[in-house]
Amino acid sequence: MEKKILVVEDDKSIREMLTFALETEGFKVESGKNGVEALNKYVEFGPHLVLLDLMLPDINGFEVCKKIQQEIDIPVIMVTAKNDIVDKVLGLEIGADDYITKPFHIKEVIARVYKSLKRFDKTQKSERDSKLIEIGKDTFIDEDGRCVRKNGIEIGLRPKEYDLLYLLSTNKGKVFSREQLLNRIWSYDYYGEVRNVDVHVRRLRAKIENDENKYIETVFGVGYKLR
Question: Which fold has domain 132-226?
Fold first, then answer.
């Protein structure tokens, strides 16, 4: 099936460059120049992935991302001219799958688009016979279905959250540094921005842990491990 991508960018030259490059790769592309247009085209077009500029003239990219994620969980890659780690962390907190900082190389954009789509496709895979990995009390990873169930109920995890939990769960007791986790899960050079790992660990804890059951342990000064 032809993958559809929505490009949201107020700069016409960048918008046209991204659209052309993605269409050359075989994607079906629609674009918007502001937040309102983005949300309208999102409903009409039904994209598989959104490339979303942070600084839009009306509704900012954070709000657009939140509205999209309230409707359906699809990969959102935020594109921003800002190099502020706070903005990047906030983007990840509200559901963005990845981010790219301007100026960027178009090959990097294409690579990250393919990577995000590949991860997301895997989360949609469902098979009858499931191999379960125990995380803790009544909490299991369905390895074949790429999902997590707690008390028999599926917990919604984003692709990188699942990948991170799977790596830790298949190496119980082993301590991974933040740099190792960046390399294994993201497979890109994030220029030492290890806060990405902390954000995803925090989101995982909120989804699978409670006051009685703590699974992911912080090894101070090093990284993380699964108990």
Answer: Arc Repressor Mutant, subunit A (1.10.10)
Classify each residue of 29-52 as buried b or exposed e, where b means 16 or more C-beta atoms within 10 Å of its C-beta: bbbbbbbebbbebbeebebbbbbb
Instruction: Find out if CATH 3.40.50.2300 is the number for domain 4-124.
Output: yes
Q: What is the pLDDT of residue 124?
A: 55
Q: Token pair for residue 157?
A: 């995890």
CA distance 211 to 103: 43
What is the SS3 string spanning the chain?
CCCEEEEECCCHHHHHHHHHHHHHCCCEEEEECCHHHHHHHHHHHCCCEEEEECCCCCCCHHHHHHHHHHHCCCCEEEEECCCCHHHHHHHHHCCCCEEEECCCCHHHHHHHHHHHHHHHHHHHCCCCCCCEEEEECCEEEECCCCEEEECCEEECCCHHHHHHHHHHHCCCCCCEEHHHHHHHHHCCCCCCCCHHHHHHHHHHHHHHCCCCCCCEEEECCCEEEEC
Q: Is 55 in contact with 82 (CB distance < 8 Å)?
A: yes
The 10s digit of each residue's pLDDT in 165-194 is 889 888 888 898 888 888 888 765 555 567
pTM above 0.85, yes or no: no
Residues of the chain with CATH 3.40.50.2300: 4-124
